[in-house]
Amino acid sequence: MSDTRVPPPAAGSGPPTRSPYQLDADEGPQTIGGLKAALAPWPDLLTAFTTELEAAPFHQDGAEPLRAVRDVISAYRVEWMAKVHPDIVQAVADDQAGIDDGVPLDVVMAEYDPDTYKRRDGGEAA
Q: For the chain, which residues score pLDDT lower than 70?
């Protein structure tokens, strides 16, 4: 009997699919080299990432060691996600094409508390 199952994709091998607004620690590129490879299709973004990463101090008085480095990595993981997440890519394409069939942000946010982002009616977030 042969095993015909397809192995699951490696962690970080593709864009997150559950939410375009959240990037968990195990989603997306997991190493600096992986992040550089993921940003390679956008040379300006890759250059900016490399420049900021090289300029980030390993330690600042009163700050957690490597905090600046972690902040740069986190920011560019989010930049990567904005370039590859299907929902975000579609929204950008629609915007560039002049398609405006979405719900305005203020209408969506009217259902949520502006401080806690919890639904005012206590229901689940969409």
A: 1-22, 101-106, 108-109, 114-117, 122-126
Contact 64, 58 (CB under 8 A): no
Rg, C-alpha atoms of the chain: 19
- CA-nearest of 110, 52, 97 to 77 is 52
Question: Phi-psi bin for 98: left (phi > 0), alpha (psi -120 to 50), beta?
Answer: left
Task: Give the ranges where 1-126 is alpha helix by DSSP (H).
Answer: 32-39, 43-55, 67-84, 86-96, 105-109
The pTM (predicted TM-score) of the whole model is 0.61
Nearest to 53 by CA among 23, 75, 38, 79: 75
Phi, psi (5° rounding) for residue 119?
-60, 140
